[in-house]
Amino acid sequence: MSEQISRRDVLKGLAVAGAAVPLASALESPALAAPAIPDVPLRWLEGRPAEAPGTTWGVPWPKGAVPVSSAKEQAFALTAADGAAVPVQTWPLAYWPDGSLKWTAHAIGPGTPVAESYTLRPGPVAATVAAPAKPVTVKDEKQYVDVDTGVIRARVRKSGSELISQIWRGETEIARKGQLVNLRQGKIDDDDDRTVEVDSYLSDISKVEVEQSGPVRAVVRIEGRHTSKKGRSWLPFTIRLYFYAGAESVRMTHTFVFDRDGQHDFVAGLGVRFRVPMRDEPYNRHIRFVGDGHGLLTEAVKGITGLRRDPGAAVRKAQVAGQRLPDIATWDTRVSSRVHLIPDWGDYSLAQLSSEGFTLKKRTKKGYGWVAVDQGRRASGFGYVGGASGGFAFGLRDFWQRHPTQLDIRGAASEEAEVTVWLWSPEAGPMDTRFYHDGMGQDTYPEQIEGLNITYEDYEPGFGTPLGIARTSELTFWALAATPDAARLGAMADAVRTPPLIVAPPAHLAAAKVFGGLFSPVDRSTPGRKTIEDRLDFLFDYYRKQVEQRHWYGFWDYGDIMHTFDEDRHVWRYDVGGYAWDNSELSPDLWLWYAYLRSGRADVFRFAEAMTRHTGEVDVYHLGPWAGLGSRHNVQHWGCSAKQQRISTAVYRRIFYFLTADERTGDLMRALVDSDKTFLAIDPLRKIRTEPYTPDPSALAIGLGTDWSGLAAAWLTEWERGGDPVAEKKLKATMRTIAAMPNGFVTGEGLYNLSTGEFAPAPKKVAVSHLSAMFGQVEICAELIDLVDMPDFERAWLQYCRLFNATKAEQAAETGANFGNLILKQGHSRLTAYAAVRLRRDDLAARAWTEFATGDGYAPDLPWKSEKVTTTLNPTDEAAWVSTNTTALYGLAAIQNLALVGDKLPT
């Protein structure tokens, strides 16, 4: 492509055709006019939803498209497919270094009907932007915060145990006393005797902050701990409440941090509880649960169907439909005179104790026997209690995937029902967080290395602790004017299962050149491209099936995948040291996100979303001595003694954050900004160092690969979000001082000064690891080179990219020594491709494709299919040649090579 073609033309071509354009074409002219601001077509990720309680999403913009001088004045208008203006709230998520907008977030409230698609159009502030008919308003008082969506009003308390003290619809109080509940026991009974006492805890609020106040979206953040009546506290929490203009619902994200060592205090129940006033007669009170699909339990507290005497068809029909019954004076008197003899069923409990089954039971009241209602496979996690004059609906996302979960209704026959959504079911027994073996005598580093050499587990006493891990759950609550009909209940359950999300198309994401420009839309225009695309699809579809067939579900497990397969047992090595849960090893998170960015596939997005929720919370420490670090792959997510930046790195969270504007993910990345201090607490190389080393704040030994890339990702994210300027300072200081080393990244490790953010001058040496660039460094360096004009840094990175897969002679000639016997050459082919583009060298492009096809990863002559196996516990698809390390690197290399040098793909 000619250097005279402007970047605007490149972007226009991408947006229109969706074709892959070599990265070099967009980089050849350093000083181009700002591109025209494009209109962005938007769609629903899974297609138009029947129920959309309120939606937030992110959109990227090309560098310079919204200049710094006008960024604060920029308005964004949203129109539906039919041209109707849609009220939208907009705020910035990230900026380009020149100050122009890089990412914006947008929110809309519920609309009727929901449009099939939308167009987002930037314009001057004077542009007509629709205002919501019922804007959400926030009143921040001394003791509470009142939020009014125009349909419902909620009072958020600033102290005490009640997060939401009341929810009104008009003048009717629908729910009250919204609290967090927790059951704790001090030990686990391993024998038949059950003698453990269980203590009850409630939420205890310490801080409330209004993060957004409308007009379309309001967000209230609540922090606190769970506290018992005896004054004992544990399990710090962060709750966010989301309100949308015109909505009759409240969305909640519930985060707790496990702040015990896992050996002594155990969660026996964890949930969210509301009280619901019951104003209607018992026969006008309704219970609803949505099971598999739209399967529905339709019952009344006092049922008048199936009786020996018939109250009348109109009466029976109304109760089943959830409508107010005709006046009791109109019923058949043989029923109305005996209505007091019909039991009131006030308590219901739905427990999902595994991914494969739930049970539903009911009773009249406490102290009396439970009656089995039914069983099913996978409940939606949605229920309702209320009546003809109003009621309360509640839902927990990933209900069966994150078993054991439970939905309880108590006292529906009284004046006040109690609803509890259990994130951890009290019927499941305590949450067992104990380490899974006794150490087997591995008390010294040499013994631990021997263990690593047999089970691949890096064990160390006291390190296999969950102290500081977290979990975030998503819930939705509706305050309704009456009992919904079956179709509405099904739609609400769908909105809980799969919250509707608006997305920009892959062509626009690629045209904006975010995330380093390392992806291009899916393209099957040539046989070579089609072959690679088909193999990428096979690998994703295989893992998607493995999650289901191998049942990779559960509260702490859902979202992760396994590391390595055991061909002899025909199972993944779930019980073999470091071969079990993957914990982001070699960047499967990035493989999935880049696969989504280029394809727009909803199933890929949801798979990547679940992994991001898991790896960012469960595999990372959020308090304690290792806060800011993650745990390497292991039988337990927290089991490995390698606590490192390569797992906690913000590069695995960035894409999800910018696509969704999710505040919790933003918190996770912001918490990593000061994680350079963790190198004072723990030395990643402590077991293999041959020289004495004591961490020194002015000379911390930090690897230039997995360590620095994790720090750089956090600093970059904070800088572009407009945060702490220290992040920008440290980022650029490390870039400059790495570039100043005689061998740059090839040096391997540097001595870092916490105060200045600089690496000390280093001697010319060679220390290259096959892992260094495989945990997001490729992606972060591509972004940095695109953002920061620092030629020496680019030179240092391109040297590493050129030489990793070069001959030993070439390595030694340039750096003074060869790199040894390296592996992961297929995964590193994308480094060669990147150097080919930046240096405009066709020989490197050809070498990259040779490395991709003949490296040590997946070979072209593999079967590229799975076989059915019926001799395992459950029938499965098996491809024994597949491993997660290789899959992640093959996927990233294929995606990035196609984007960078796809035009050089051999025929």
TrEMBL record:
Residues 1-33 form the signal peptide. Residues 499-905 form the PcRGLX/YetA-like C-terminal alpha/alpha toroid domain. The keyword Signal applies. Residues 40-122 form the PcRGLX/YetA-like N-terminal RIFT barrel domain. Residues 136-493 form the PcRGLX/YetA-like central beta-sandwich domain. The lineage of its organism: Bacteria, Bacillati, Actinomycetota, Actinomycetes, Streptosporangiales. Keywords: Signal. This is Tat pathway signal sequence domain protein.
